[in-house]
Design brief:
The protein is of the alpha+beta class. It folds into 4 domains: 1-62, no CATH class; 71-124; 130-281, no CATH class; 284-338, no CATH class. It is built from 13 helices and 11 strands. It has helices spanning 2-8, 73-79, 81-86, 92-103, 109-124, 127-144, 178-184, 231-244, 259-266, 283-294, 300-307, 315-325, 327-338; strands at residues 12-17, 21-26, 36-42, 47-53, 149-159, 162-176, 190-198, 204-212, 218-226, 251-255, 277-281. A 7-stranded mixed sheet has the order 5-6-9-8-7-10-11. A 4-stranded antiparallel sheet has the order 1-2-3-4, with no helix packed on it. A hairpin with a 4-residue loop joins strand 3 (36-42) and strand 4 (47-53). Helix 10 runs antiparallel to helix 11 (300-307). The longest helix is centred in the middle third of the chain and has 18 residues, at 127-144. The radius of gyration is 31 Å and the shape is elongated. The protein starts with a helix and ends with a helix. Residues 190-289 form the MULE transposase domain. It holds the Pfam family MULE. InterPro entries: MULE_transposase_dom.
């Protein structure tokens, strides 16, 4: 019914909609159009029978370039499923373009966005169901591969000020696969940690640790979903990382040296301090922080080159080159690169 209505650029009102009866009329019924249809279900034959039909619409809409009341988000969600399945990050403007191409209507941004969310949920499941499945998923993973490391932290649920008994929600989770743990034994003694924000319905951060093999390939070794890049969250992540994955001494820990990471390193009881580990700056963050502070893109490459020098004695010459430009940049870079 919706497809016919959209194709003909007409509209209808539903007067009766029951499990066994459906009765609808044109929105302009009695004003130039007599279209109506009434159908009923024959239970014993499991089929619908048309009981009354007044023929085709004799009305037309003034324009077909705008939105249509029957082109709802559910209809659009079903129409764009192949696109969303192929690319879950499909842009909303691409949804609008697809609707325009397929139905010859222009829907607003909100309807297109809502349709995409519904399509994602139909294909991949909803946010609630996905989070509820996490414990089952990790349990199955541990059952299949007992060497997998998974560590949960939960927190109580409150309804107003009252504690809800027997219900706890996810707070943090750390996990690492056995192959990741095993392959790190053959990687360089270097790990880099970073986090990225989660932008779904439930906010938080995904923390990741990577290392590097002898061929300079990036190897992911540990993961965590936490409430944010707080000191407690990084302490939870780094503690589990040291206990289960990075168990050898002399490892270089590379980060952006964010305050919460520094605080977590200080709380590690020496696990991430010399000589068991050495906390180092990430060159990429040095580059971006220097550029943000001094607005000197022509010195950007020089700062990166200084950061990549292997021997401290060779740094002096590069600092001298920067000092020739201005002592402000030189002193700023020296503080950043040497701590």
């Amino acid at each position: 019914m919706k497809e016919y209505t959209l194709r003909r650029s007409v509209d209808y009102h539903v007067y009766e909609s029951e499990p066994l009866i459906f009765y609808t009329k044109c929105t302009q019924y009695g004003s130039g159009c007599d279209w109506l249809i009434k159908v009923s279900m024959i239970s014993r034959k499991y089929c619908w029978v048309i009981r009354r039909y007044n023929g085709s619409h004799t009305c037309t809409r003034a324009t077909i370039s705008q939105d249509h009341s029957k082109l709802d988000s559910n209809t659009i969600a079903e129409a764009i499923k192949p696109l969303v399945e192929a690319d879950p990050s499909l842009k909303v403007k691409s949804v609008i373009a697809e609707v325009q191409s397929k139905f010859n209507y222009t829907v607003n941004y909100w309807k297109a966005w809502l349709a995409k969310q519904k399509s994602v949920e139909k294909i991949f499941g909803g946010w609630e169901a996905s989070y509820e499945a996490l414990p089952i998923w990790f349990e199955a993973m541990c059952h299949k591969e007992p060497s997998v490391v998974v560590h949960f932290e939960t927190m109580p649920t409150y309804q107003g000020d009252d504690l809800v008994t027997d219900i706890r929600v996810l707070h943090r989770v750390f996990w690492s696969y056995y192959l990741c743990i095993r392959v790190f034994r053959h990687c360089k003694a270097v790990v880099q940690v970073n986090g990225t924000h989660l932008y779904g319905k439930y906010k938080g951060c995904l923390l990741v640790t990577v290392s590097q093999d002898g061929n300079n390939n990036i190897v992911p070794i540990a993961f965590a979903i936490v409430e944010g890049e707080t000191s407690d969250a990084w302490h939870f992540f780094l503690s589990n990382l040291h206990e289960h994955v990075v168990t050898r001494d002399g490892v270089r820990l590379i980060s952006d040296r964010y305050e919460s990471i520094n605080a977590a390193v200080e709380r590690s009881n020496g696990a991430w301090s010399p000589h068991r580990a050495f906390h180092m700056f990430c060159i990429r963050h040095i580059e971006s922080n220097f550029l943000r502070k001094f607005k000197a893109p022509y010195l950007q490459k020089l700062v990166v080159n200084i950061g990549n020098i292997k021997f401290f004695k060779d740094i002096r010459g590069r600092f001298a080159s920067m000092k020739c430009v201005t002592s402000v940049y030189e002193s700023g870079a020296r503080r950043t690169l040497t701590g």
